[in-house]
Amino acid sequence: MLRVGIIGGTGYVGGELLRLLCVHPKAEVTVVTSRSHAGKPVDAMHPNLKGLLDLKFEDVDPSAIAHKCDLVFTAVPHGAAMNVVPGLVDAGLKVIDMSADYRLPADVFESVYNKKHADPRPTVYGLPELHAEEVKNATVVGNPGCYPTGAILTAAPLVAAGVVDRIVFDSKSGISGSGQEPSETTHYPNVAENVRPYNITTHRHKSEIDQELRALNNKVKIHFTPHVIPSVRGILTTAHAFINKPLTDDQVRAIYNEFYAGKPFIRMSKPTLANVRGSNFCDIAFEIEKGTDRIVIVSAIDNMVKGSAGEAIQNMNIMYGFDERTGIWMSGLPP
Amino acid sequence: MLRVGIIGGTGYVGGELLRLLCVHPKAEVTVVTSRSHAGKPVDAMHPNLKGLLDLKFEDVDPSAIAHKCDLVFTAVPHGAAMNVVPGLVDAGLKVIDMSADYRLPADVFESVYNKKHADPRPTVYGLPELHAEEVKNATVVGNPGCYPTGAILTAAPLVAAGVVDRIVFDSKSGISGSGQEPSETTHYPNVAENVRPYNITTHRHKSEIDQELRALNNKVKIHFTPHVIPSVRGILTTAHAFINKPLTDDQVRAIYNEFYAGKPFIRMSKPTLANVRGSNFCDIAFEIEKGTDRIVIVSAIDNMVKGSAGEAIQNMNIMYGFDERTGIWMSGLPP
Amino acid sequence: MLRVGIIGGTGYVGGELLRLLCVHPKAEVTVVTSRSHAGKPVDAMHPNLKGLLDLKFEDVDPSAIAHKCDLVFTAVPHGAAMNVVPGLVDAGLKVIDMSADYRLPADVFESVYNKKHADPRPTVYGLPELHAEEVKNATVVGNPGCYPTGAILTAAPLVAAGVVDRIVFDSKSGISGSGQEPSETTHYPNVAENVRPYNITTHRHKSEIDQELRALNNKVKIHFTPHVIPSVRGILTTAHAFINKPLTDDQVRAIYNEFYAGKPFIRMSKPTLANVRGSNFCDIAFEIEKGTDRIVIVSAIDNMVKGSAGEAIQNMNIMYGFDERTGIWMSGLPP
Amino acid sequence: MLRVGIIGGTGYVGGELLRLLCVHPKAEVTVVTSRSHAGKPVDAMHPNLKGLLDLKFEDVDPSAIAHKCDLVFTAVPHGAAMNVVPGLVDAGLKVIDMSADYRLPADVFESVYNKKHADPRPTVYGLPELHAEEVKNATVVGNPGCYPTGAILTAAPLVAAGVVDRIVFDSKSGISGSGQEPSETTHYPNVAENVRPYNITTHRHKSEIDQELRALNNKVKIHFTPHVIPSVRGILTTAHAFINKPLTDDQVRAIYNEFYAGKPFIRMSKPTLANVRGSNFCDIAFEIEKGTDRIVIVSAIDNMVKGSAGEAIQNMNIMYGFDERTGIWMSGLPP
């Protein structure tokens, strides 16, 4: 049994990791930390876990953790992870970091997040469909952002095929991506019966999308605008791509099928948030506009699973040689 | 033109008063106060009013207000109103208070709200369908709570008829009743796809329901449990009433029709939140359970209109001899 | 591996059984029937299952089914099941029926559903927390209705203890209980931002609640009013119970703990739809009203799981001697 | 008092016209037709109007209508209007048609709607901000589609200024645009917690957007993809525009301010569906992407008001020389 810990287990990301890991057949959660709730039962903060998990929050102590864990997930805020991870690595642990701290090279991070990086080690971008080999041998994996997971998976095959010049990602996300902390933007009357674009041309997740897609084709132009819709979970990504040569449906389908061959969580299937809710799947479909140079590719993921905790467990599975589906091979929850 | 002011104009109640008053044909808003936003345009906080209202927030100054107003609505928190109202009254103004401070006799208020009352004057409970005559001549009107408006209107005719022994009010409210301030209970993921009972046997609004219904029949037993549903506006009140003698549909209908004769905002009509949304109507229907002593009466109101700002304007209309429908005679907003 | 079939696999109930059974470690779905979709892949109707299940819909043929199955779930409409079940039983199969046809004695069924019963065999009411012993040896189990599951579990301990005289169940359900077929009552604009009481004093599920609670105490008076809230899944049951002697919190807690000792899916925990969403748990809490004879007990279940498919699988587990948690021991899905 | 009739008054469009017209100070509804509900009170289908309107549905009879009306709104399906309008015009009535039948030249209509046009008269496209002069003198006005109203108003100033080469309209609409008839796509479980792109490259409304924007600059390339979000009312249009020369914020703002000078319903204000809900406003904002050729313009309208009934009444006001705000000058309904 792989022994895993969660650093920062009170928020949505920690809760979602626990939801999935508490029934994972090859991993056991042995430590969950929280500075502010140390000593309290984990199910006091996550009552959905009552009966499924019998642990108390502990304070963070790398050497104590190292005695009880093989791997830790760091689910602390951006900027905090970089101060926690080195100690964990030094104590001999592998780390999957859920924040933005290990997704970008340190210099890019510093420019995008406007913050000095305290631990500028080389990073592995933990998008398993693109980087399984590097993940396999990584000590620290930077787990991707939710929007980037959706956007990159939507467009990567066409970009890699060199047929796309420009893509506008118009993304629609559930509000859970904003986290557990109440704010004006998560206030029910401000979300319900509404749809809110934000950081319209400036969202920091764009740097991850740029990094990954431009690694596949450095000439592609990327635009990204996120919106929040009245939904708790899920991201629907609408990618308006402009192609540089005519393509048929069959050609596009072949590009996707080939690119994602052997990737169990990618389904060429009409995307709806319901069909992927609670699951690690990414459903993708496309439509070519007749008489123009536009192709629209649409995908759906659960931002908390494939866009966060599920993807992290998929990375864990890969790091330890388990079938990558282990513990996360379940249906979405429609309706 | 009646000149009106709003003390505390930044919240939901102030905003809703402004939404309705800015097109009221016999009243003009001349002052809107806010300590924290003094000097800012009102439409900076209420962008829905842009183009409809050209005012700036002012600081609270009773004598200045008295020069510009005939009537003020006090839309400040419970416990704060009692410190503001005396100065306004002394300056010659009439007041409709939106808080709980003037709904109950001072001794009852003190016991329910656990707070010394600073202005223990006799109160007029501003439920126009029951107290139009007192409202007409009042200087200070205590505008009813949203749950009490729904509950009292639902049951008053049967209680007054002396046919009911006990009523369980199971109320379902939109979240806007919690106000504009974000909190854990208004966080979208905690409200959506959920329904939350709270203050299950202890909600303070029960004292208003008690006061009004027991004035009609002091033997009736009242129970009240509120719930929040995933809706922004509206209260649906389900009243489970236990009757002390058999009644037919026709008898019950007659009781309601007679009690509400000449009350334009009460409609005997299948209640849905949509049909009353944004409007001052209260829609009521009932069903007698065959073979038992239960009758179920259901009503729908918009908590922000008939349960707050609309009812206040109805009171204003009555105080100044206008037709009580003036400025609030509009359809609900389905779908 | 237990071989199971689903008769009527295109609707919500069939889909939810498939969602859970496709990853059940001791059961394998070998047959899914649909008259209208025979020959089509199951994941054409349930795209959430793509990759998880490789089956085609078949036409209904009891003898063919008997060769491939040990147990079948009949997920066909009320009134249809009674015509299908006898043939399956004669072919040697065990049956868990998801309709209302086997929940009530035939004479009660006929009176409530106003329909002649074609198969008036003795029934086993498959509420595992009350009838595990009978379920164990049953050939045909009538799987309970969703509202009754919630209502009975909420009140049974107090009723069995003889301390309750009367209960008003005010239930709030997600719309998925209305099934997959679009109608005026499931039309989004009629459900969103609304709450709708229906069959206010006449819902047929009341007969199940009566049957089970009056078997525990035949003097208790039962009232039941269902509502639909803007939620897809979940039932919150608010039980207003009137007690015949004073009770303390400790006494009530002891009554529940004793009654549900050893029942893994019952949790004494603050009920929210989110915490049980997608899971088989029933979360229960209570509050005693000071100075009156009312106690309010509240529960939350997922109507599609504990109120339908999950409970059916729990029954299956019991019938075949598996741990009753097998395949359904998973967390709810908050947020 | 202008006498107006509504042909086809049972659906959402008819209901919304009635909601607004029943309190319009210069118009009186004298006829509402419905073949299937002739003889029934209008408020039986539109219970929100109870107390506000005392009319019965009548059968359609152009000459009878002509005796009682000056103007009629035809709110019948696409393809049906063209068979009704000629008779009304011949009877001397002015007509505002709510369907697609009079928005496009007959040849374009026939190609887009794949249907022979029965009444190929020249059309006036009733977007008042662009065509007030033609509307003023029109006999038949084709009231614009909801998506086109949002899209055209969002982009027209930049297109007219010649600075835009290509625009991708990614529109998000409430479900009320699908009408009153329940269907799989309006089924609550399919809409809630979801977002659905549809007619991704083929929506027929694109022809209206093309017509109007290419009349302003025939070189602009238009793309349009609509989505349905879990909202009843409202359209948020996200326009990703590609500019052919660098622009500053001030320049863009000046372009909009000049283009919309004297247009009371256009507000340069952060768009939210709540701020325009129930109102005739169109709120617009923009953001220029640094370092690229993209500008994102976003607008919000209520699809049932500015995108339908409100715009029609605005057209009516213009046709009869009333202030265009008459009867529709009201705030949106936040929260």
From TrEMBL, chains A, B, C, D:
Residues 3-138 form the Semialdehyde dehydrogenase NAD-binding domain. Gene3D superfamilies: Dihydrodipicolinate Reductase, domain 2, NAD(P)-binding Rossmann-like Domain. Pathway: Amino-acid biosynthesis; L-arginine biosynthesis; N(2)-acetyl-L-ornithine from L-glutamate: step 3/4. It is an enzyme of class 1 (oxidoreductase). Pfam families: Semialdhyde_dh, Semialdhyde_dhC_1. Keywords: Amino-acid biosynthesis, Arginine biosynthesis, Cytoplasm, NADP, Oxidoreductase. Its EC number is 1.2.1.38. GO terms for biological process: L-arginine biosynthetic process. SMART domains: Semialdhyde_dh. It is found in: Cytoplasm. One of its GO terms (cellular component) is cytoplasm. It catalyses: N-acetyl-L-glutamate 5-semialdehyde + phosphate + NADP(+) = N-acetyl-L-glutamyl 5-phosphate + NADPH + H(+). Catalyzes the NADPH-dependent reduction of N-acetyl-5-glutamyl phosphate to yield N-acetyl-L-glutamate 5-semialdehyde. Belongs to the NAGSA dehydrogenase family. Type 1 subfamily. HAMAP family: ArgC_type1. PANTHER family: N-ACETYL-GAMMA-GLUTAMYL-PHOSPHATE REDUCTASE, CHLOROPLASTIC-RELATED, N-ACETYL-GAMMA-GLUTAMYL-PHOSPHATE REDUCTASE, CHLOROPLASTIC-RELATED-RELATED. This is N-acetyl-gamma-glutamyl-phosphate reductase.
